Amino acid sequence: RAAQAGQTHVQLSSRRARPGPASAQTACPAPGPSSSWRRPIRSSCLTEFIFFADYSKSSGNYIVDVDGNTFAGHVHADLLSALSVALAIITLHCRRKCPSNRPALGVCPPSDWVDRPERQPATMMCGSCANENAIKMLFMRYMAKQRAGRPVSQQELDSTMLNERRAPRASPSCPSSAASTAAPWACLSCTRSKAIHKLDVPAFQWPAVDFPAYKYPLEQHQEHNAKQEKLSLVQVEETVNRQRATEPVAGLIVEPILAEGGDIHARPEYFKALRSLCSKLDVPLLVDEVQTGGGLCGTYWAHEQWGLDSPPDAVTFSKRTLLGGIYFSDNLVPDQQYRVYNTWLGEPSKVMLLEAVIRTIKEEKLMDSVLEAGTALTKGLEGLSQRYPQLINSPRGLGIMCAVDFADTNSRNEAVQRLRN
Ligand SMILES: Cc1ncc(COP(=O)(O)O)c(C=O)c1O
After folding, report:
1. Most ligand 1 atoms within 8 A of CB, residue of 193, 319, 320, 401 to mutate
2. Could you list the residue range(s) of the whole structural domain that residue 387 is in?
3. Statement to judge: residues 271 and 185 lie in one domain
4. 3 state DSSP class of 17
5. CA of 148 relative to ligand 1 center, distance in Å
6. Which of 4, 137, 187, 394 sits in a 20 to 30 Å window from 145, CA-based?
7. Where is this region: Disordered (predicted)?
8. Cα–Cα dist 250/281, whole Å
C-alpha cells in the first residue's frame, strides 16, 4: 500500500508473533557431516557456518535455525515488514524509472536522490567497500596536497594507466584488527585479524601500532593504563616519522574497539590524544566504525563518546547501518569526479530501511535501552569475573558491546557452546 501511494518513508507498524524463549533442540553446531550447518556452499568458498537461520521464523530477540533451535539474537520484528515495504517501493520505483531492479546510484540515481542534502555520506555496498574507498580518499588528499593546485598532467595520467606511478602509502594502520574478513586488498593490508584471510595475497607494507594493553578494572590500574596509552601514542608518532623517512604517510586508520581483534577497548582519553596527534602530524584520521556504529555502543557512533575537539576526517560504517558508507570531511573531497565510484554505490532500498531503523531507534528510545542494558551487562560481567577470577577477567563494555577474557581458548569455546545450547 505504501508503495502504491508513492510513499517513500517506510512505516514500522506491523507486529509479528515472536518466537522464544531460547531453546536448543539439537547441539549447535550439530555433530556429523549431514547436519545442515555444515553443508558446503562451494560457490562462496565457505563450508563451515554457525547455523543456517530461518529468518521467516526469527523475530525480536530470537533467531531460529533450520534445525528448530531458538537462540537469543536480534531480528527487530518491524524490520522484516519494513523490508517488504521497501522492496515493494523500490520495485515500483524501478519499474517506473529504471530498467533494472536496483538503481545504479553511480550512473542513474532515482529522482528523489536529487532532493537529498548536497553533503551526504558516500553510500557503499559493504564495510570493506567503504574502507577501500575511504583509503583511496586518503591517498587522493595526499596527492592533491602535493600538487598544490596544479592540474593533473597528461604524463601522470599516462603513467597511471601503466601502473608506473608510485602511490603514496596510507600508513600506519593502527593496530591489530582494522577492517577484517576476506576483504579487498587495501583492507587486507590493514587487518591483523586472521592470517588465513591474507594468505597468498600481495600486501602493502603498512605498519601497525600496538593498542594500549589495559589492566582491569580500569580504576584500579590508572597509572599502568595511562602509561600504556602513552606508549601507544609514542609508537604512533615514531612510526609515522620513521615511515616518512622513506614513504609518504597518507593516513591513519583505527577501530574504536578492536572487534575481531578480541574486543579490545581503549579509553576516550586515548582517542582524544590520538586525534590531536594526527592533527599535529598532519595525518588524516579514518575511524572504522563498521563494528561499532549504528547504536550498539549507546550512541550512533562510538567516537561521539571521545569528546573530540575536531571530528575524525573520515568515518566508515556498515553492518548495523544496513548499508556501507563513508562520512568524510571537506579536505577529503576529491578534486575530480569519478574518483570514488562504482556502479551501485550502495543500495537505495537499504537507505530506506536505514531511515526506518533510525526512526524506530528514536521512537522507541532504543539508545536509552542500549545504555541501560549495557550498564547491566557490564555490571553482571564484573560480578562474574569477581566470583570466578580463575575463569574470566577484564570485563569491559561500551553500550552493549561488552566482553570478557577467558583464561584459555578451551574454556572460552566451552562457554560459548554451553551458552548456545
Ligand atoms: C572493523 C571492520 N571493518 C570492516 C569490515 C568489513 O565489513 P564487510 O564484511 O561488510 O565488508 C569488518 C567486517 O567484519 C570489520 O569488522
Report:
1. 319
2. 367-420
3. yes
4. coil
5. 34
6. 187
7. 1-37
8. 11
In a shared domain, residues 410 and 302: no
Q: Which atom of ligand 1 is nearest to the CA of 183?
A: 11
Strand partners, 41: 46
Residues 260 and 235 in one domain: yes
Q: Which residue has the cell 560457490?
A: 43
Per-residue pLDDT tens over the stretch 330-374: 999 998 888 998 888 988 888 888 888 898 899 999 999 999 999
Q: Separation of 13 CA from ligand 1 center, angstroms?
A: 31
Largest Cα separation within the chain, whole Å, is 69
Query: What is the whole-number distance in angstroms between the Cα of residue 289 and the centre of ligand 1?
Result: 9
Burial class of 12 by CB neighbour count within 10 A (0 to 12, 13 to 18, 19+): buried
Number of domains present in the structure of the chain: 2
Find, among 83, 166, 182, 168, the residue nearest to 126 by Cα.
Answer: 182
Q: Which among 74, 63, 85 is positioned nearest to 11, based on CA atoms?
A: 85
Residue 16: is its pLDDT beyond 60? no
SS3 222: helix
Is the CB of 284 inside a 6 Å radius of any atom of ligand 1? no
Question: Is pLDDT above 80 for 78?
Answer: no
Give the range among 78-82, 150-154, 315-319 with minimum mean pLDDT.
78-82
Question: Which is higher by pLDDT, 163 or 214?
Answer: 214
pLDDT at 43: 53
pLDDT, average across residues 201-225: 93
Average pLDDT of span 16-45: 61
377 plus 273 within the same structural domain: no
In this model, does residue 293 exceed pLDDT 80? yes
Ligand 1 pocket mutation pick from 180, 187, 292 by most atoms within 8 angstroms of CB: 180
Instruction: Say which residue, 55 or 280, is predicted with more confidence.
Output: 280
CATH number for 167: 3.40.640.10
* 348 burial type by CB count under 10 A (0-12 exposed, 13-18 middle, 19+ buried): buried
- Bridge partners (DSSP) of residue 46 are 41
Quick check: CB of 260 below 6 Å from ligand 1?
yes
pLDDT at 419 over 60: yes
User: Looking at ligand 1, which residue's alpha carbon is closest to its atom 9?
Assistant: 127
